[in-house]
């Protein structure tokens, strides 16, 4: 976002202090108004919440952990520590989008120190209190410090783009919301050109 007239390039925590790196200098002691780049923030919220839903479904189906996560500029890449059959991918995607269409409320909260040990939440290791939990009802309950949507319907759609073997598990590519819509629009346009070249119906280009 921006601080006053300066665009924030990155934010980091240094020795307990939040440091904003900006494209132009700000005078020491000056008071500024901060504004979030909402389009970028909402895009990240869609991708991150979509990843929670897919990871929760995969954990329930196979017991696998999400062991790697990268939010690129075009797609989201994440890794799981076990194999996923190709024939199951459509089921995973269908279940994930069903959660989106249910428009479930997303809950972010900090349980008390006494309450935390009694909660079964998705994690790879034990975490010291305090822990922030993010709950997608009936789908995922996970320790997380990231930004999320308020309702699953805000994700719009979830599209799994690829799944390949990676170490002892798999690496998946995914896009959600506006990113998914843009990618699918590009794929449709490419397939339309193929269908015209082969004089085939647009849903029969593979056979052609």
Per-chain topology:
Blueprint: E1 2-3, E2 6-14, E3 17-22, E4 34-35, H1 38-62, E5 66-71, E6 76-80, H2 89-102, E7 107-109, E8 133-136, E9 140-143, E10 158-166, E11 169-176, H3 177-197
Helix pairs in contact: 1-2
How would you portray this structure in words?
There is one protein chain. Helices cover 29% and strands 28% of the residues. With 208 residues, it is α+β, with helices and mostly antiparallel strands. It has a four-stranded antiparallel β-sheet, with no helix packed on it. Helix 1 (38-62) crosses helix 2. The longest helix is centred in the first third of the chain and has 25 residues, at 38-62. The N and C termini lie far apart (48 Å).
Which structural traits does this protein have?
alpha+beta; 4-stranded antiparallel β-sheet; 3 helices
Shape: globular
Strands, total number: 11
How far apart lie the N and C ends?
48 Å
Proportion of residues in extended strands: 25-35%
Average pLDDT rating: 95
Secondary-structure element string: EEEEHEEHEEEEEH
| Unreliable residue runs | none
Measured as a percent range, the helix fraction is: 25-40%
As laid out across the biggest beta sheet, the strand order is: 3-2-1-4
Largest sheet: 4 strands, antiparallel
Radius of gyration: 20 Å
Oligomer: single chain
Structural class of the helices, strands and pairings?
alpha+beta
- Please report the number of helical segments: 3
């Amino acid at each position: 976002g921006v601080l006053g007239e300066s665009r924030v390039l990155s934010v980091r925590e240094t020795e307990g202090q939040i440091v904003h790196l900006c494209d132009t200098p700000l005078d020491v002691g000056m008071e500024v108004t901060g504004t979030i780049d909402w389009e970028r923030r909402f895009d990240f919220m869609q991708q991150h919440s979509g990843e929670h839903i897919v990871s929760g479904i995969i954990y329930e189906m196979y017991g696998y952990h999400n062991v790697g996560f990268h939010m690129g500029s075009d797609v989201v890449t994440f890794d799981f520590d076990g194999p996923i059959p190709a024939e199951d991918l459509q089921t995973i995607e269908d279940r994930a989008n069903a959660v989106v269409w249910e428009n479930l409320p997303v809950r972010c909260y900090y349980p008390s120190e006494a309450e935390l040990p009694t909660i079964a939440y998705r994690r790879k290791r034990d975490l010291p209190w305090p822990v922030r939990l993010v709950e997608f009802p009936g789908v995922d309950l996970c320790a997380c410090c990231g930004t999320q949507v308020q309702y699953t319907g805000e994700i719009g759609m979830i599209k799994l783009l690829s799944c390949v073997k990676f170490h002892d598990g798999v690496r998946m590519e995914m896009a959600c919301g506006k990113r998914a819509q843009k990618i699918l629009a590009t794929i449709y346009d490419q397939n339309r050109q193929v269908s015209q070249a082969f004089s085939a119906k647009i849903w029969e280009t593979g056979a052609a």
